[in-house]
Amino acid sequence: MVLGFRKSTPGFKRITTYELEDFIKKNNPVILDVRSPHEFKSGHLSNSENFDFYAQGFREDVSKLDPSKPYLVYCKNGERSLKACKQLEQMGFSQLFFLESGIESWVLNGGGMLVKE
After folding, report:
1. Which tops the pLDDT comparison, 114 or 32?
2. Is the dihedral of CA 13, 47, 39, 43 positive or negative?
3. What proportion of the chain, given as a percentage, has pLDDT over 70?
4. How far is CA 42 from CA 6, 35, 90, in A?
């Protein structure tokens, strides 16, 4: 069961940078970083998987994921993650959450859990 957070749209919810760590601990979501591979390598949340939203094969790649699991989607500033959530919702994913203001805001607010490659 996914704990309640502020509702953003009918199919997915936003998670603020202040809620992020608690949300991950309580819900154990699959974490999707929808930035480019270059951005991903510069620093990403621990245990996140990279699915470049602008890559030609994005839709095909994410179609291999289990749509019944909870997913936390993030990008640099929240724009791509919101678009990705809309697309995932259309594909039948039902437990979608996106990081409002993105990883950029997370870092500016002193957030940890970043892995650099």
Report:
1. 32
2. positive
3. 91
4. 30, 11, 30
SS3 79: helix
Q: Which domains does the chain have, with CATH numbers?
A: 12-112 (3.40.250.10)
Q: Answer yes or no: are the C-beta atoms of 31 and 25 closer than 8 Å.
A: no
* Separation of alpha carbons 64 and 13, rounded Å: 22
The per-residue pLDDT for range 89-105, each reduced to its tens digit, is 999 999 999 999 999 99
Q: Nearest CA to 33 among 56, 14, 20, 51?
A: 51
Q: How many angstroms separate the first and last alpha carbons of the chain?
A: 33
Tokens coding 77 = 């500033």
| Helix/strand/coil (H/E/C) assignment for every residue in 8-68 | CCCCEEEECCCCHHHHHHHHCCEEEECCCHHHHHHCEECCEEECCCCCCCHHHHHCCCCCC
- pLDDT score, position 39: 96
The total of other beta-carbon atoms located within 10 Å of residue 32's CB is 24
